Amino acid sequence: MTPPPRPHWLFGDQLGPHFLDPRHGGPDPGAPVLMIEARSVLRRRRFHRAKAHLILSAMRHRAAELGDRVTYLRTDTYAQGLAQAAEHRGAAATRNRRHAEPVERKAQLTVCHPTSRRALDFVAARDDVEILPARGFLVSHDHFAEWAGRGSGKGLRLEGFYRWVRERHDLLMDGDAPVGGRWNLDHDNREPPPRDRPVLDVRGPWLPREDAIDEEVRHDLDRWERDGDVSFVGRDGPRRFPVTRREALSALRGFVTHRLPDFGRYEDAMLAADPVMSHSLLSVPLNLGLLDPAECVERAERAYRAGDAPLNSVEGFVRQIAGWREYVWHLYWHFGEDYRHRNTLRHTEPLPDWFLDLDADAVTANCLSTVLAQVRDTGWTHHIPRLMVLGSRALQDGWDPAAVTDWFSRCFVDGYDWVMLPNVVGMSQYADGGLMTTKPYTSGGAYINRMSDLCAPCAYTPTHRTGARACPYTTGYWAFLHRHRSTLATNPRTAQAVRGLDRLKDLPELLATRTQQRDTPP
SUPFAM superfamilies, per this entry (predicted)? Predict the structure, then answer.
């Protein structure tokens, strides 16, 4: 007798239709769906309130779409949810048993490869769950291993991986060559923001309309907080990101049509009054599984081929998704769990309370206060504030990289373990000693001043290294180079900067200023 389709378990970041597609190693055709809302996930760590709202709203919206096909359980833990689901299956089997016994199968439940090691270990330890291949990415684990094996000791650098993905998936290619003759147009995408206006002259991002499900989620979160069951950080204002497939497609269309053309040139710029600028805001629906990366890059390429968006913008967007996102996903698994504890620079300082609490009002430095307020209010900033304001502050101050990783994972609406572990340990904090990047990414105030409008109204001056108006990023930068001089002097990409220490006649005064600054928020 043909066995009935096994139920398929959807995690809260596997919400798009491709996670239920039975083709190419997917779940059984017509599989019933199991979803588990486990309160312990929110209780375990202090997440951003907007992130908790977003994920629960997305899960409940997906359950509403699936209707009678889904069993949606609200339990304390995943283990309790699976036990309840097993009881339901057992009762159903008893009711439906006929003269012939169904074919027995060891695994009674399927699930797509989870996105965190903790979740993978949990499902892998269960005999009743079959783990299907990962979905939501362009490159499979096997294909990445094939590419990584070709390296011959040259390292797993992004640029080589990105070119390989472009070739393999025929993205922005003219035959065997990249469109336009260059693989990477990053140098065309580093313009400072316009100095004559506070916001870019582009249409604002697509925004959703909240509904009854959002109201229910907010009511539940309020109640759980009042009961002392959970604790959050940040503010939960009106929802800004998609939680359904339909909303995600609207956001993608809106970006490609109205914002992609201007995305490239100001990709690395910052404006205090325009935190979104021309960025896509698609990391959230992508990381919830509502969008597939292939449809995002293919739609962008069609815009270029149709003459609706310039190559530098399209290539920059494709590099973010087909390059960096895929690269980070695979390095998360490739480097293994020990990567989490890498700390080459031996940074051990705890995160200060003002940072943990997103207390932007406690901070004097305008760039840091502005960006921290953006995180507090929305749970999001684009990649340059993350790297060159938040991450740079942590690196210069020597904060524990594991704690920094946890903070980014909890406080960003698009933050998941697979996203933040390589991004923070490797890219932001250089804690892996160069496995992922060739140098630490930090700078003085001059970079922030060039790439933003954040310095003019600040109490500090980016060119001042000493005294009351000394910029914490400028003093922090030189103090960081001084502290790690022996390590950075042997790195070809930082050696020249280290030699610059010898030209600083005020280095003792700078270090004294730095010591005074560290006693208070920047």
Answer: Cryptochrome/photolyase FAD-binding domain
Does residue 125 share a domain with residue 6? yes
Per-residue pLDDT of the chain (522 residues; tens, 9 = 90+): 678 899 999 999 999 999 999 998 999 999 999 999 999 999 999 999 999 999 999 999 999 999 999 999 999 999 999 999 888 766 655 555 554 455 455 668 999 999 999 999 999 999 999 999 999 999 999 999 999 887 644 678 899 999 999 999 999 999 999 999 999 998 888 999 999 899 999 999 999 999 999 999 999 999 999 999 999 999 998 999 999 999 999 999 999 999 999 999 999 999 999 999 999 999 999 999 999 999 999 999 999 999 999 999 999 999 999 999 999 999 999 999 999 999 999 999 999 999 999 999 999 999 999 999 999 999 999 999 999 999 999 999 999 999 999 999 999 999 999 999 999 999 999 999 999 999 999 999 999 999 999 999 999 999 999 999 999 999 999 999 999 999 999 999 999 999 999 999 999 999 999 999 988 899
- Same domain, yes or no: 117 and 159: no
**Distance from C-alpha of 202 to C-alpha of 260, rounded to nearest angstrom:** 10
- On whether both 383 and 501 belong to a single domain, the answer is yes
Question: 292 and 161: one domain?
Answer: yes
344 inside domain: no
Domain boundary among 278, 300, 335: 335
For residues 485 and 382, state if they share a domain: yes
Same-domain check for residues 117 and 25: yes
> Does residue 399 share a domain with residue 431?
yes
Phi, psi of 131 (to 5 degrees): -90, 120
What's the pTM? 0.94
Check: CB of residue 434 under 8 Å from CB of residue 335: no
